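can u pls check wat happens w/ nicotinamide-adenine-dinucleotide
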Amino acid sequence: MNRFHHKVCLVTGAASGIGNATAVAFAAEGAKLILADVNEAAGKGIEQQILEMGNEVIFVTCNIARKEDVENLINTAIQTFGSLDCAVNCAGIAGKHSALLHEYPEEDWMHMMQVNLFGTYFCLKAEITQMLNNGGGSIVNVASAAGLVAQPGNSPYATSKFGVVGLTRTAAKEYATHNIRINAICPTAIETPMIMDGRRKLAYDSEALEAAKNFQAMKRMGQPEEVADVILWLCSEQSSFITGHAMPVDGGAFA
Ligand SMILES: NC(=O)c1ccc[n+]([C@@H]2O[C@H](COP(=O)([O-])OP(=O)(O)OC[C@H]3O[C@@H](n4cnc5c(N)ncnc54)[C@H](O)[C@@H]3O)[C@@H](O)[C@H]2O)c1
């Protein structure tokens, strides 16, 4: 398929995991890419990989929690490519702690909101402003299953992801007649550094790994490429009558 030939597509969190797989999938379908991440070294690496695939691509170092970084990102995209057709807001953090709400360190609680919720808001705001200028577009926010059901021990993550779903649904209604579609995806356990090496350390805990697999009806974790396929479909014309969804990507967990 070549659904994104000549399309300008932005991916935040492109240096790792789901964002990385999404960037590569867009490139394979001919997109011009703007990649953003706080991790400059890894971001430059994926930029090089995509250059070698023959695509036009730029990497911009960007902390989505900083409004001025996000504005610079979108300005750079427009100066380089002239428009913005698709945007995938994938950058996010899952936190370091498992703790009850009343014991969760306040500073870390706020930081998670700043990145996952306010960061996604800054991105959406700048992307929508640009898409209104260029006549439309499609946006996918990467929320989480924790944006649909509780995640005990990680209240800031669940709260931020419920917020991303709320932002998605509200913005979808606000811009539905402006040719801008806005959807969210809500993955369960996807095999990326966040889940293998992050808060849940599944790479080092075989019991927790089995539990994470068993949460899905398919009894396995999802792969980042399987999530990227859903994201690209939501960005493509093939989903032209779909907006405002918070779509589980869950191996049957919520069936
Ligand atoms: N892996 C899972 O099981 C899972 C499940 C549900 C939702 N998600 C969501 O998917 C998204 C991607 O996660 P992943 O699993 O690929 O994780 P990951 O850690 O592999 O990748 C996340 C990327 O986001 C970047 N990032 C973090 N904070 C940033 C910031 N402030 N500004 C810019 N970039 C920043 C990181 O540097 C990293 O490259 C996240 O929003 C996460 O919450 C993941």
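The helical segments are 17-28, 40-52, 67-81, 106-133, 155-175, 193-197, 206-214, 224-235.
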